[in-house]
Amino acid sequence: MAVREAIGLIETISVAVGVRITDEMAKSAPIEVLESTPICPGKFMVLVTGLVSPVESAMQRGKAAGGDVVVDTLLIPHVHPGVFPAILGAVEIAKPGALGVVETFTAASTIEGADAAAKGARVELIELRLAKGLGGKAFFTMTGDVHEIEAGMEKALAVVGAKGNLVRSVVIPRPHDATFRKIL
Questions:
Q1: Taking 90 as the threshold, does the pLDDT of residue 89 lie above it?
Q2: Cβ contact 46:62 at 8 Å
Q3: Global pTM?
């Protein structure tokens, strides 16, 4: 497994080209491919991690291979460590607090928003759901004290909104136990 210091993502409107991008990226640098998969509606996502320089190199190679079918990209050199467990669905919340949900039009925007929220406030990322079964949209959830969720939400919305990729967001100050049981 590569060191998870940076994260890169390329979304395309072509499955075939997405597979080629994955191959080009994997051949170009010592990276870990976290996801290489079709996503709704007919798009493809390649998600990679590793040290900063190899991820940067792989992203350059992947974008060049993708050409005009690339619809969104992201490169976060020093990603918040809480992003990876949330993407992989490996987060256990001991004591849930307030709940924040940010829904976006792209997987890349969701990762960028979650990273900004986790870096800008004392929140715990719960899950990043990246466009599978969501009609191409994505979302992330986070928990913490209400004021921290609000601060994290502000940071996330600034990043996501700047790209025009925000669908909706909510802060639930005191979610019912059943809500957490269903989303955790």
A1: no
A2: yes
A3: 0.90
